[in-house]
Amino acid sequence: MSDLTPVRDEDAFDIAKVHNWLKNYLELGELPTVSQFRSGASNLTYLLKYPDRELVLRRPPVGTKAVSAHDMKREFLIQFRLKPVYDLVPKVIALCEDHSILGSDFYVMERINGDIFRRDVPETLTKEDISIMATSLVAGLAQLHSVNATVLSELNKGPGYVTRQVEGWSKRYRNALTDDVPDGEDVMRWLDLNKPEDVGSCIIHGDWRIDNMVFDLGRKKLVGVLDWELATVGDPLMDLGSALAYWVDRDDDPEFASLRRQPSHLDGMPTRKEFIAKYLELSGRKCGDFTFYEVFGLFRLTVIIQQIWARYRAGQTTNPAFKGFGVGVNILINRAQGLIS
Known about the structure:
By secondary structure, the protein is of the alpha+beta class. It folds into two domains: 4-110, Phosphorylase Kinase, domain 1 (2-Layer Sandwich); 127-340, Alpha-Beta Complex (Aminoglycoside 3'-phosphotransferase, Chain: A, domain 2), CATH 3.90.1200.10. The chain has helices at residues 15-22, 72-82, 99-102, 127-144, 161-176, 185-193, 236-244, 254-257, 272-283, 291-313, 325-340; strands spanning 4-5, 33-37, 44-50, 53-59, 92-96, 106-110, 202-204, 213-216, 221-225, 232-234. The strands form three sheets. Strands 1-2-3-4-6-5 form a six-stranded antiparallel beta sheet, sandwiched between helices. The chain is globular, with a radius of gyration of 20 Å.
């Protein structure tokens, strides 16, 4: 299934206005053809296809948004700053803060050519391909966490990252609560009572998963990392816990496995325990008990999905990809509850 679809009516924009604005930064001829990436549950992403180049446009969704979410200027600057020291970041071209163009801030970047793998992969993938994906995924995260965080120093709020995250995500969940999901109070209370001290402070991605990676399996490498919306400076084990919330093992229960959106279950992929062990080996960090980070990752993902589910229920988005998110919230919060019981 192609990742690209015609632009949904609710997400359409004036192509000519964007094209004319882009001509301030690039030599462009005729108007591009525009399609929309079906993936991405938060910011909207489009492909602008010109005869000689392909560009990607990112903008916020329509409707009520969390106060700190969908900050295009922040997302643009993170990638602009990181590109010289972490080459897997896309090259950004320009940020637009003129709302007369599109109705909100947006930015444009170059498209990274390669393969993006989602829930199901082609049968032509070999065991070597899967091994390359697995190895580069763990190594890429450890590499990011080793980058000098001073390039994003204004995002560093100092010690207390774990505490701020528990408090912040708990507040977001309560604010987005609907009557068809658990109140999550037991999980939030457990997280608050079991907070560890920060183990470090580094650049973290916040949404590290296979379908945010661009692979060139012909060259046997990871060539790009996408979706820097949630990146910041914080605790590396919290980033690892967030990444593993998406990781479905081969022997996980069917309910949790139904949420799988990446090929983490394939033979040759590490289990969650193996992922943690390999990351700790590569990063040189230590962690005797990963339970807190696993529970936090599950809860954080629950909140992200619940915020979207609340928008969907309110009719602020009609994206059919969101119709099962309420069920997903129930599964995730129940799984987190099971880990602390």
